[in-house]
Amino acid sequence: MEFANTKWVAAAASIWIQSFSGASYTFGIYSSVLKSSQSYDQSTLDTVSVYKDIGANVGILSGLFYTAVASRTSGSGRFFAGPWLVIFVGLLQWFVGYGFIWMAASGVIERPPVAVMCLFMFFAGHCQPFFNTAIVVTAVRNFSDYGGTAVGIMKGYLGLSGAILVQMYHIFCGGDPRNYILLLAVVPSLLILTLMPFVRTYDTVIAGDKKHLNGLSAISLIIVTYLMVVILVENIIGMSMPMKICSFTFLLILLASPLLVAVRAQREEKQRFLSLDFPVTERTTLLDSPKLNSSFDDKVVMTNDMNVLDAICTTNFWLLFVAMICGMGSGLATINNIRQMGESLRYSTVQLNSLVSLWSIWNFLGRFGSGYISDTYLHSHGWPRPIFMAITLGLMAIGHIVMASGVLGSLYIGSLLVGLAYGSQWSLMPTITSEIFGVRHMATIFYTISIASPVGSYIFSVKVIGYLYDKVASEDDHSCYGNHCFRTSYMIMAAMALLGSLVALVLFLRTKKFYATLVAKRILKFRFRPGICFQFFETMERINTKWVAAAASIWIQSFSGATYTFAIYSSILKSSQSYDQSTLDFVSVFKDIGGTFGIISGFLYTTMTSKSRGCGGPWVVVFVGLVQWFVGFFFIWASVVGLIAPPPVPVMCLFVFLAGHSLPFFNTANVVTAARNFPRYGGTAVGIMQGFLGLSGAILIQLYHAVCGGEGNPATFILLLAIVPTLVMFLTMPFVRVYETVTTSDKKHLDGLSVISLIIAAYLMVIITVENVLGLSRCMQIFSFILVLLLLASPLFVAVRALREERQTLSSLDRPVLDTSALLDPPSSIIFPDGDHVVAEDSNILEAMSTVNFWLLFLAMLCGMGSGFATINNMRQIGESLRYSSVQLNSLVSLWSIWNFLGRFGAGYVSDIFLHKHSWPRPVFIAITLGVMAIGHIIVASGLQGSLYAGSVLIGMAYGSQWSLMPTITSEIFGIRHMGTIYFTISIAGPVGSYILSVKVIGYFYDKVASEDDNSCFGSQCFRTSFMIMASVAVFGSLVASILFFRTSKFYKNLVAKRNLK
After folding, report:
1. Phi then psi for 692, rounded to 5 degrees?
2. Does this model's pTM top 0.85?
3. CA 27 → CA 205, 233, 416, distances in Å?
4. What is the pLDDT at residue 819?
5. Is beta strand 204-205 parallel, antiparallel or unpaired with respect to 830-831?
6. Taking a C-beta distance cutoff of 8 angstroms, is the pair 228, 355 a contact?
7. Does residue 837 have a pLDDT over 50?
8. Which of 181, 362, 775, 883 sits 20 to 30 Å CA-CA off 212?
9. CA distances from 1055 to 283, 320, 390, 544, 824 (A)
10. d(Cα 376, Cα 860) in Å, to the nearest integer?
């Protein structure tokens, strides 16, 4: 027995126990017979299954029990102590639970009430925390410096156990799920009873642990590969019973191979101990860990070895808890319903069993892979583990979307992604728990967090999947066939997985300093190469340049202009909520109010970028906007598709406001950062950023066509808006930073970005024209959108080229980096002869509002932005009144984005040229573009053939120009430090003008001539008067801008002279 008393034998015994204890993952095998034998509907079956999940995840008792009986090492001398006792208590619950479930399903006992069946299911699941606690915590204690790999192996075999048990089912049960339940009650019980005495703790660390852990990892990969081959052969070709028996026998031989690793490891350790070349050292890493500095980020990471009450009082505990609700909850809901989903898509029985088995393999790969990979990147690059949690939850969201699509093979592909991501959480979360909160009470804290899993499973399985399934299922037999049975449910779970990814990212940012310290401590212990733990952060610093920031900002801007696509979904919003035109216009105004009310974003940007803060920077502003974006569009979609009852108009206005209010946060972060990074060419930089924002409408519509086709459902487009841009912004926002330097080659590379933007705009215009005139097949639409994505990636080439040139010039000192203190530390005020002056740079909002120039700019924007907003909000209704087709209407919205882009980009670029070469004040371009806008309104009012195309070109370019010129003028007249706040205060003029012109002008005159039956109107008279009024308003705005031009002409001459002198 002494030979067997090593941690490697304990690891082998733990692997065998885990390999046969994952019966909860095979619920899909016997769920159908349970449903039919007990006459359950889908909601009742899901309720019963949730108690399995509750039992499998409520592990507080097992954690406290482990701490009480297994806190001492194997040398304690007490018989009734050690991990084996924890396993034995779990074993009793396993046998009782599955025994009574079999008797109920087979009719041995009378059909129990639902509550009693829930109790049986709870016992069957509640054994798992006892097995898991004993094995996982023991593995962390035995292999403390490679906890991720050890936990990944143990958790991996638990995930793989489903496939192993299904192989047993094929051989011994003859296809009868009742026999399988009896098999679960008997065979694993005997196996676990035999092996549990070998599971012990050994508190030593051997520097050769990694080598033998890699051996166990290789064996696990061989086993999973073999199982996958067997499952595929069985699914495609079929296997005779003798072949099944042979394959299972070979599987048992493979499962015995960890003993070879144990024997080899013990032999090497004995040799090292005898020769004293590699002594065994006492383990002090985790159990006796020093207290970490608790000052990091306002005590972001507390000291190690907290108890559960201490842990619950920390923010990190609840971040981990919420992330697990989203990830584990939706993963459990998927495995609980995967058989029903396959049946609804008419998969065969063999395919359904294969799906469950393959899920176990993906689950294993996620559990094993995330532990191994996170250990590798933690030790070699210093990557904090929570970043892998964020990545895998994003992967899970994609998997849910694939499953919701219902296309051929989607259930296989989607279950692969969801299975990998779900398994990853079970490896990452325990390891993160042990590192942040300590290993002594790890089990209790780990399973307290695991309560999130059944909570999420109940919400998703019962309140989402069960509710929506029963809503569309047949009343006769509670069955449903088709993609619609589960589509909405899985789109909701995709949204929640994405939310969990965002929460995990916050945890990553809060713990990155802690992980850097943790790795440094381990490196010091084993005398590795110093400084390696900061390699990740140094790599990030190398790529963090203002050009990478510009590329990231371009991507964010390219997907954030959903407000310009309101016309795509305005009709379905109107019909689904039974709005008349005035109500629809009233709701749309709140989108405009949110989209231009940026005072809060301005203040937040000033706060986050004015000080050197570890958690500050423009990315915080983007993140706050991202949360509002997702919440707003998700609830708009839920209202439109009937997921929630039609909300009152004020509540819908709130949803629309949140969706729109995200835009000021994105715009502030990207535009103000661009102005600070490129102060000498602020017009061009701001024009590029605002240009891509204007272009984003066309990009999002191309996404809509690629996913949904030319005549797609606008409700699906709203859901796409909630998910896809959120992912893009989430991935790119960390790169948006401020760099207070000026290099003399800025103009050259900004011109490169300008050329790229023009190429993208030209390509989109060609695609839209071809689609309108000739039409595009679905394959061509997908191909064209992929090409758009490739073009959007091209700014990275400019960033790489700029970085290379700047390094060369910096090393040669031929082109020194200039300080921008002249811009950030303003000169004295410039006084004009008439007594009024342009306020000194860096004036705050109150100082700016006390000047005449502020109100002139505000009034000009009220006329220009207000009438532009009113046009885009009503463009679809104008087209419908002139009997344009759906394709033409979508093309109008897409082309508006092109003209909007050209106005935004062109106004910034052209005004920069004329300012530097001819000293033309920028306000003169506002006057010119507002005059062009007035002409566009007159053309639209004419109602002639093609007038809507021609008029929208002029209005779109003029409207876009305001969004480029106004921020740049604001930064020049009032300074850059408080630019975000002042700029968006002036932007309030947009929704004010939009409300007046949309509701009091367009809505009033439309409803006056519309039919009383369905509030519809056809003909040029519907909008003629309204657009003639808006033309007059635009002319008035042009006159106001001319006054501002004359008042600031001397200021701009001095500004140009100062830049030339510099």
Report:
1. -65, -30
2. no
3. 39, 23, 18
4. 42
5. unpaired
6. no
7. no
8. 362
9. 67, 52, 47, 31, 14
10. 58
Across the strands, what pairs with 282? Answer: 204
The angle at the Cα of 72, spanning 67 to 77, to the nearest 5 degrees, equals: 130
User: HSE (CB half, 13 Å, CA atoms) of 397?
Assistant: 25
Query: Which amino acid is present at 202?
Result: Y
Residues 687, 671: Cα–Cα separation, whole Å? 9
Residue of 158 and 329 predicted with greater confidence: 329
Amino acid residing at 936 = G
Angle at 759 between CA 757 and CA 764, to 5 degrees: 95
Pairing of strands 741-742, 281-282: unpaired
* Amino acid sitting at position 103: M
- The three-state secondary structure class of 780 is helix
| 680, 532 Cβ separation under 8 angstroms | no
In which residue are the tokens 């638990």 written? 158
Residue 167 CB neighbour total at 10 angstroms:
20
Mean pLDDT across 587-596:
78
535 has pLDDT over 70: no
State the average pLDDT over residues 466-489: 79
**Is residue 234's pLDDT more than 80?**
no
Token pair of 701 as six digits: 């519509």
Q: Are 842 and 977 in contact (CB under 8 A)?
A: yes
Number of neighbours of residue 836 by Cβ within 10 angstroms: 11
Q: Tokens at residue 476, please?
A: 């006769």
Q: Residue 292: pLDDT band by 50, 70, 90 thresholds?
A: very low
Q: pLDDT digit string (tens) for 360-388?
A: 677 777 877 887 788 777 777 778 889 88
Q: How far is CA 1035 from the centre of its chain?
A: 45
Residue 159 CA neighbour count, 13 Å, CB half: 34
Secondary structure string (H, E, C) spanning 291-344: CCCCCCCCCCCCCCCCCHHHHHCCHHHHHHHHHHHHHHHHHHHHHHHHHHHHHH
pLDDT tier for residue 539 given thresholds of 50, 70 and 90: very low
Q: Give the residue with greater pLDDT, 70 vs 304.
A: 70
C-alpha to C-alpha distance for 379 and 522, rounded to whole angstroms:
9
Q: Judge whether 70 and 83 are in contact, CB under 8 Å.
A: yes
More confident residue, 463 or 291: 463
Residues comprising the chain, all counted: 1062
- Amino acid letter at 703? L
pLDDT in tens, 600-658: 888 888 888 765 444 568 888 898 898 899 889 988 988 888 877 888 999 899 999 99
Q: Is 838 a residue whose pLDDT tops 70?
A: no
Query: For all residues of the chain together, what is the average pLDDT?
Result: 79
**Tokens, residue 910:** 């052209």
Q: What's the whole-number mean pLDDT along residues 141-163?
A: 78
Nearest to 32 by CA among 379, 478, 664: 478
3-state secondary structure 951-999: HHHHHHHHHHHHHHHHHHHHHHHHCCCCHHHHHHHHHCHHHHHHHHHHH
pLDDT at 206: 58
State the number of CA atoms in the 13 A half-sphere of 43 facing the CB: 12
Place of tokens 């342009």: 838
User: How far is it, in rounded angstroms, from Cα 898 to Cα 904?
Assistant: 10
For 257-289, the DSSP string reads THHHHHHHHHHHHHHHHHHTSS--EE--SSTTP
Specify the pLDDT at position 839. Answer: 44
Distance CA 984, CA 905 (A): 19
Beta-carbon contacts of 85 under 8 Å, excluding residues fewer than 6 positions away, are: 65, 69, 70
Pairing of strands 204-205, 281-282: antiparallel
Please check whether residue 690 is in contact with residue 963, taking contact to mean a CB–CB distance below 8 angstroms: yes
Residue type, 920: W
CA of 246: how far to CAs of 174, 241, 251, 928, in Å? 16, 9, 9, 84
